[in-house]
Structure formats: C-alpha cells, structure tokens
Design brief:
single chain, alpha/beta, TIM Barrel, 18 helices, 20% strand, binds zinc ion
C-alpha cells in the first residue's frame, strides 16, 4: 500500500470533510417525536379498488392496460386487468389516464442526517452533525412525494436510525420504511466525536459491530480507511451478530468480494491497486486529499486494463450489491453551474441548503480547471456503470440523500435519468429501483412488486415513465402500505 504524506491543517480539514462527506451521521440520544395524527391517517381495514390505469411491470417488461388492484388491510389483495371486480368496496377510484409503478426504493438515503458543523478547538477542526427531527420529517416527506416507499439508510446514529425505522413501522412517523445502519466504522487520524466509531486497540472492530447489532441496526457500515484485515474481522463479526455489511471501502473491490461483504456503495473504486503500475506512483505522489480523488483517480484509471476488467468480472460473479450514487458526484462535478446543481434544491430543507452553500460540499475549493477535469472523466464513470450492468453486477439505485445538494425523492428520479444516460435499459433501471432492490435488501417477499400479498406500495403517474423518467414529477397518488398520499400536498408542505 502507501504511506500518507504528513497532512497540513488545511489538508486535515479537507480529509476530515472527505471522511464525513459520505454516509454520515447524527448525534446520539435524541428520539423522534411521536405523531399520533400520522397513525390516525394510516389505512385501516378499508377495502379499496383502483382501476382503469396502465400497470407497468418492470419484471415482465410489459404495460398492462385497463389494470386494477384491490387494496385491503394495507396489502394488495388482487391484481388484474379488464373488467374490475364487483365489490363491495369501501372506495373505488377511477385512475383513467394514469400509469402505475411499484413503490420505489432508494438504497442510499441518509434520511436522518442534519447539517454538518465545524468547530476549531486548539487549532484542530472538530466535526459534528446537528440532529433535527424536523429535517428527518422533511426528508421523509420528500422521498414519499416521488414515490419512494422504502429506503436503506446506510449510515447515521444507530439509536436515531433505529428509532426512525420503528416509528415508521408503528405509524408514528410518516416516511418510507427503512433498513438501517449505524455510524460508519472507520480507522481515521482525526476522531469524530459522535460521528464515526473508530477502531482502536481498546475498541476492536468486533466490539463495535456487536454494539451496533445490539442497538438494532440491520447493517454495519465499514468505511474507507479500514484495512483488509479490519474488513475481514468486521465481516466475521457481522455474520456472528446477524447483521449485513455495507462497504464504502478504500481497498480493491475484489478484496471486498473475497471477504464477503454484502454491499458496496459509490461508483468510486478508487484503490491505487487498480491503477496500472506505470501511472500508480505518479498518482500517489501528485494526488490531493479530499474529494479531488473523485476525478484524479478516474483520470488515471483504464477501464480496459486487466485489474479493472477483472474487478468488474469479480463483483459481477459474486452476490455483492452496488449502488453507484451517480447523482452525488454529478452535483459536485457540475457544482460550478447552479442552474444544474440547484434544479431540485427547493425540495431540500433550508438548513441543509444553507449548510451546503456555506460549508459542507465535495467541491470545496475547486477551481475552474478542477471542474473541467471532473466533467472530463464523467463519460468514463458512465461507462464503468454500464460495464457493471452488462457483466451482470447486482446494481440498485441509491442517491446518498443528505449529502450536498441531493434533494430527497427528486434525486432518485435524477439517479434513474443518469443511469439511462449511462446506457442502461429503461426496464432494467425500473427493476433496480423496485423488485431487484427489494430482493437485495431482503424485502423481496413484501415490496417491490404490484402483486397479491405484497405491501400496497405503489405510485400513480399522469405521464409514462417509459417515455421520460421525469414522469415521476407527475405523481398524483402514492400508496405507502396502503396509505393514500398526495405528492402535491407533500411537496407543498416542504417546498422552500
Ligand atoms: Zn452515504
């Protein structure tokens, strides 16, 4: 491997920001307020018919005309087409002109993440995250407004994330159902009080994994600075304590596969080990700390090279899942173009927007030349995602919502469009956002499909998403465990 250079304070600050930049975190100890009105609004024992719409089936790759569903007890009771069944129904809704999709799944949504704070003590930056239940509620509504009825939250305070999951499940909080992780488990030079759980001699990785599992998380998040040995021990502990593992790893992805991690995140396999030997030393000597890696590594990466071809084949042949979070990088690379970057910013919480505009952003300090270099590698990143798909890698769609300029809900639509621009077929993208994600998250028997016995998770659109994924902006009705929600009402509640 390599020896890091002695960091200056500015570098430490940038490194610190880089470390928190993905997948971070909230302060412990705060619960989510009960909201009994939400429980009261939940669908009860009504039996409802929705009929006369076009049902899009991403698995069969078909559009079924004159479709209907019967929803009873928060579940889908019957699905069909042609003449709808005769009741009695408590409600019957003519959905003429609408297209219906299964409820969408964002596999990378930090729904509880609040603004990042920085305080300097004795000349050393101290990073934190301000937790705010109002921001969580805002993000949750934004996700639902775009038809996102299920998420994986791959990093945050364990108690807060578990409380979110339980509050949603119990009907105390309006938001997508969640599979959740705790704080990132890392080995970093700079401690992050309350943000990351750092491995040390006193605190081995097994103890941290055990604590997270005891707190009730579904997954542990294994982070960038962990060694291959750390990752192997973390994976063994995850198996022992019955939780999944998500890696935002600094090691070669083939190592992550060998170790048996369940998931990888971000289309940024930035291990120097994957670079050709003739450019590796140059890269290591000239690279800058922080998010510059997002394009500097790609400038040196050769998709035709043996290590990268082998890496793609290895992840594709394994069960490991990947969400590319293209939107997270896109919004940084186009950070010099506010019209692009801020297209959906009115849906983000004002405190988050202010945080991103003033402090917490990937492109902090980037010059015009940096933005140009970043945009220049974008086609390579798109090709990488296409190669992963072509090879059969198990891709889902994640946004890294909560990170800079990533608006809840709308960002999943953007992620779908970015995958389309990368050359993936529309139906494949729809499966990645529904049935495939559900299966890979272990929820394949309850959501991700419009089928009898499944949770009534659906989104009705005025326009056809197979013509343009922007049709998700025309959602008029979202069913979330049978609860009928109006996207326009949700958007109006959260718009700045
Ligand atoms: Zn993340």
């Amino acid at each position: 491997m390599f020896t890091p250079r002695q960091p200056t304070l500015a570098h430490r600050f940038a490194c610190s920001l880089r470390t928190i930049i993905f997948c971070l975190l909230t302060c412990p100890g705060l619960g989510i307020a009960d909201d009994n009105s939400v429980a009261a609004q939940r669908a009860s024992d009504t039996v409802r018919l929705y009929y006369n719409f076009k049902r899009i089936d991403p698995v069969a790759e078909k559009v079924i005309p004159a479709a209907y569903v019967v929803v009873a007890n928060n579940r889908i009771q019957a699905v069909g087409s042609g003449a709808p069944p005769v009741g009695p129904f408590d409600e019957a809704h003519d959905m003429q002109g609408h297209f219906a999709l299964p409820g969408l799944i964002d596999t990378h949504a930090h729904v509880t993440l609040g603004p990042v704070t920085v305080a300097v003590e004795d000349g050393i930056p101290q990073l934190g995250v301000e937790y705010d239940p109002a921001i969580t509620a805002h993000n949750a509504k934004g996700l639902l407004a775009y038809g996102v009825t299920t998420i994986r939250n791959p990093g945050g305070d364990a108690a807060i994330n578990v409380a979110y999951k339980r509050d949603v499940a119990a009907g105390r909080l309006l938001g997508p159902e969640a599979r959740v992780a705790g704080p990132v488990i890392d080995r970093s030079a700079t401690p992050f009080e309350g943000l990351a759980d750092l491995v040390s001699e006193d605190r081995p990785i097994e103890a941290i994994v055990r604590e997270h599992a005891a707190a009730g998380v579904d997954d542990v998040k294994l982070y960038f600075s962990l060694t291959a040995e750390d990752l192997a021990r973390g994976q063994a502990a995850a198996e022992q304590y019955g939780v999944g593992s998500i890696g935002h790893v600094g090691v070669d992805w083939r190592t992550a596969v060998e170790i048996g991690l369940d998931a990888l995140v971000h289309a940024m396999p930035t291990s120097p080990d994957l670079l050709n030997p003739e450019v590796r030393d140059d890269y290591l000597q000239n690279r800058r700390p922080g998010a510059y890696e997002f394009f500097e590594w790609w400038e040196q990466a050769d998709l035709e090279s043996e290590p990268i071809r082998d890496m793609i084949a290895t992840v594709a042949a394994s069960d490991i899942t990947i969400d590319a979070t293209l939107i997270a990088f896109y919004l940084a690379f186009w950070g010099d173009q506010p019209a692009v970057r801020d297209a959906y910013l009115e849906l983000a919480h004002p405190k988050m927007v202010q945080n991103w505009q003033t402090l917490f952003r990937f492109d902090l300090g980037w010059t015009a030349a940096d933005y140009a270099r970043a945009k220049a590698v974008w086609p390579k990143i798109q090709t990488f995602v296409k190669l992963l798909h072509n090879a059969g890698a198990k891709l889902t769609l994640g946004t890294d919502q909560g990170n800079p300029f990533i608006a809840p809900g709308a960002s999943l639509m953007q992620e779908m469009i970015l995958h389309q621009q990368a050359g993936l077929p529309d139906y494949a993208i729809l499966r990645m956002a529904t049935s495939t994600a559900a299966e890979l998250l272990g929820m394949g028997q309850k959501t991700g499909k419009i089928a009898p016995g499944y949770d009534a998770d659906m989104v009705f659109l005025k326009h056809n998403p197979l013509e343009d994924f922007k049709a998700l902006e025309t959602a008029t009705l979202v069913l979330h465990n049978g609860q009928a929600l109006e996207p326009e009402v949700l958007k109006a509640e959260i718009k700045n």
